[in-house]
Each structure stands twice: as C-alpha cells, then as structure tokens.
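Milestone M4 deliverable, item 7.
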Amino acid sequence: MTADGPPRIEPVAVAWVVFDVGETIVDETRMWHEWADVLGVPRFSMAAAVGAVIALGHDHREAFDFVAAGVDRRAVLARSGRPPPARIEPGDLYPDVRGALAALRASGIRVGIVGNQPRATEDALTSMDIEVDLLASSDGWSAAKPSSAFFGRLVAETGAPPADVAYVGDRLDNDVRPALAAGLHAVLVRRGPWSRIQAALSPIPEGTIVVDSLSELADVLRPAAPRDSPGAASAPRGRGSRG
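Output delivered:
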C-alpha cells in the first residue's frame, strides 16, 4: 500500500487483445428476456434458471429445462412470429466497448473479437462498424472454447507469440483458464452472471488481470515492442477493419 492507495500495477505488454462476445462486449439481458417472453415464463424465473446452470457448471442451454422442460422452444419461436432472441443488435453492446477498442488501437495494440458464436455474429458486428483487426467465430473456425484448438487457432491468426496476446472474457472456465493454459494473458471482466457466480464458487487463477470495465484496459495493458520474428510481422487473417 502507498499513502495514495494500493500499489500501482505495471501494465502488461501485448501486441494483441482479443475479446469474447457474450457478456464481454454484448449484454445478453435482452436475449434472455425475449426467450422468457416467447416461452411465456416470468423473466425472473428465466434469470434464476440461468444462474442455476452456471452454479452447476452446466451448459447455458440447460436453463430452458428448468423453466420449459420438454418444450420445443424453436417451434414455439416459429409460431410466435418473433425474431430469434439470439440476434445481436447495436443496443446490446455494452457502453464501454467502442471507446475501449478505439483506445487500444490508438495505442498501437491490435484488436480482435472471437467467441463461441455462429457466423451470423460476424455479420452483425461487421454491420455495426466496429473497428477491429480480426473478427471470427467458433462456428467459422470449427473450434470452440475452451478447447486448445480454439486458442491455438487464435494465436495462429494473430501471428504473434502467445505471450503477446491477451484474451478478455467473462468466464473462468471458457476464457480465463484455457487462455492461461495456452500461454496467453487472461483478462477477466467482472460483469454478467458468469463472472460473478463462478468467481464466488472458485478462486480466480493467479496471473489473471481483473477489470470491472473495458475502459480499464488502457491502464493495465500497453503495446509490446516489436519482436524480430516472422510471426510477429505477419498480417492478421480473418475479417477485420481497414481502419
């Protein structure tokens, strides 16, 4: 401790920061509320079901079994005439996203967005004019978190050494632990139900960078010095901005 508060943490040097999607850059509240409305169940019951599957360590889709067991939700959705709740709209972006990504890019750090998502997410984010250097999805890669194949592909796409890449996510199981295991820097953003429930049930791994807002990233990360290696000089692949 210092007279002014906690000791200052030295920023970590990285060449890339890659972001998860759900509850990292996208607020999924609207999606879950719409599913509750489609199924005719109270929104509070749906929220409780999501919390239960998180605490149990189960797949998020099992939340539907708690509130609408045996119901074909796809058929109910089709009959309702509503748009699919899992779409991503501009209003779903957390308010700190655009500013945080712009600040990182302005500092010289390349930015990517890749999560466990369908290809449609790539199209949705592209239409929002979010400036990134890499945009992809698990569906497009045929590899999903927390597999080593996903993080291996991520590192290959950046063309940087794992130690020069930070992965930002809200989950310990899908984001933080596998990123650290792959040799990346892991950043946990504490928002949404996964980050809060999982952190309450198990310790945050040593070496994890923890933030409460993406706006804090510019303070805890700094651009890495260029490395004299072919990988460091490689251009990023995948969909991205020319900005």
